[in-house]
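Bug report (template v2)

What were you trying to do?
Predict the complex of my protein with MTE.

What happened?
Run completed; filing so the output is reviewed.

Input:
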Amino acid sequence: MPFFRQPNIWDTAKAAVTPEHVFLNRRQFIRGSIAGGMGLALLSLTGCQKASSSAPDLGNDPLAGTQPLRFGATDLNLPDPGRTTTPRDLTARYNNFYEFGGNKNIWRAAQSLPTENWQVRVHGLIDNPKTYDIDDFTRLFGLEERLYRFRCVEAWAMTVPWVGFPMRKLLEASDPQSSAKFVKFTSFYDERITTGPGWRPGSLPWPYQEGLRIEEMANELAFFATGAYGHSLPKQNGAPIRMVVPWKYGFKGAKSIVDIEFTAEQPATYWNTLGPTEYKFEANVEPQVPHPRWSQAEERVIDSGNPSSWNVEPTLLYNGYGEFVADLYA
Ligand code: MTE
């Protein structure tokens, strides 16, 4: 494929592994949003903070900071993903985490994310507001493994064995009030640490936020991952806890969650704020609904470090999870 110019993705920019028109479009789109909607200058390294000097140096191993986890299998009868599991090393080296930069190769920069003593505040229209630490979640809700297909709106796909717990368990423990209709999820953001080029305070709608309808959070597939591949999450994948909503585009899976709020109104979300006609709040995987600037009918399956070997496959409605979620959208 002509847009794959380099054989080794580890050290390449996102442009080398994503169809060039897709990559350029999304980047130009962000620039346009900043220059126009946000009223600020183009992306620029000038004025950016340096990454925290306390960031651990993992050498050339993006998995070196992870620990083995104890977990069980899921009770759900999940569909076979129909393709091989993405190699662990690849999932950890090919990321979207815009707080740490605008290309795929942010795993080193993400090591400045401070994950010690992490707390998640759960509040809003619920009868049991509480601040949890990661051990609280494990103790209360247990850990299980879910092998899910993963589909990014940029038309690349992976298959990842996440470890974590169903969102439904936190929903039940929170005791929502009848007025709670939506749930807002907020990622970690600290302008002294999140250091991506041009990510100056005010230039983009930080912090990264996502949202679900409360019925979507209650769905058996909606998941919080605290690990993957039997180990704690690497920082670049959203440690210590992230959303995984496998029937929606990957941007719905907010990383490094610090705040969960139950609301009556649909919350503002990061990409939907930047481009409401391009990134819908619902964002279900729907191959028949093209993104305004590119088709969603097919996806490139990232299953090796050699982009020229990636298969192009048809995208499935709800990413193949229709039997679990179609009722939500009847
Ligand atoms: N969460 C935060 N906080 N910041 C981000 O930039 N990117 C999203 C999502 N969650 C993003 C995020 C997008 S666009 C995708 S495709 C997935 O994370 C990528 O997850 P991965 O890097 O673990 O594959």
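What did the reviewer find?
The CA atoms of residues 4 and 308 lie 6 Å apart. Residues 9-45+66-329 form a domain with the Sulfite Oxidase; Chain A, domain 2 fold (CATH 3.90.420.10).
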